[in-house]
What we know:
The chain has 10 helices and 19 strands. By secondary structure, it is α/β, with parallel strands linked by helices. It has 2 domains: 2-150 and 331-362, Medium-chain alcohol dehydrogenases, catalytic domain (Quinone Oxidoreductase, Chain A, domain 1); 167-308, NAD(P)-binding Rossmann-like Domain (Rossmann fold), CATH 3.40.50. Helix 3 (157-178) crosses helix 9 (314-326). The N and C termini lie close together (10 Å).
Amino acid sequence: MRAVVLEQPGLPTRVEELALDGPRAGEVLVRIAASGVCHSDLHVRDAEWERPGPIVLGHEGAGFVEAVGPGVSTPRVGDLVALSWYYPCLRCANCQAGRQWLCDESRALDHRLPDGTTRLRRADGSDVMSYLAIGTFAERTVVAAEAAIPMPAGVAPDVAALIGCAVTTGVGAVLKTAQVEAGSSVAVIGLGGVGLSVVMGAVLAGASRIVAVDRVAAKLERAKDLGATDAVLAGQQEETIAAIRAATRGGPDYAFEAIGLPATIELSIACLRRGGTAVLVGLTRFGARASFEAFPFVDGSQRILGSNYGFAVAATDFPRYAELHLAGRLPIERLIDARIGLDDVEDAFDRMRRGEGVRRVIVP
């Protein structure tokens, strides 16, 4: 099969022919039907996050189950599944407490299946890793059964792919991490796939004011189409803070940072009203630090929340978001700019570096 391989972080990717072994016990073979190009893949490509190589990139994907290993009752052959990039062990204390996004025993961050191995090989027999144990920039992949979540009938593969990362991360940050109350005011800083999913989540939550903030005017228009009530074209920090506060009559109840830059993290805290909450959703490069002025933060009884993967319990959250989409309440398809091939990944990365568009989806 063909797959996009990164030999080591910092080098260009290339499309290679790889051998893919069949699924073992507890695993499933998935034919990839769609894979979003996410900023986390760019972090690895550009050596901002160190990862082992060679590795097949991609972690936002969906496809059809072609085979299952021994002991797998769900999903079934033929199912369309959205892939979770953090499969849970279901045994550790966090999993037992319902916090699967904090699973202590998952091998996903090792880019390995539960038995500690990979199913990908080059012609010389050498191993190739699979990013977050799903490696979706490929024609096929073998994943842990817990990572393959069946989708309701009628969901398109490209929509299912985005549920696998951007939508769950953004919508979940609103509904699960922050638990935004109806009537609240919300600012969303950064309008990529995750940030626009935060906007959609704020609409679902019934926020009264939803202020979209970005440096790209086209993204502000997209946010307004998705339900943002106000748009702020970001400029100098103090000017941007003033514009957010003006739109929310003194500052938002919740400010969501969806980029992962120290400057925008600091902006999300600085713009809050008294009693407000900054929700940090974007992931920075390794080693990055942010700061804030302590006195007004404590005096104002403010909070900072970290939100990883929208506090996802994939087996229940993925189908719930899919049903909201089918009901017309979560227009995920409007996040997609273009459908591309495996050979177009480097161009997609270039566009992402320039801040162009929202989501390009690979259709192998």
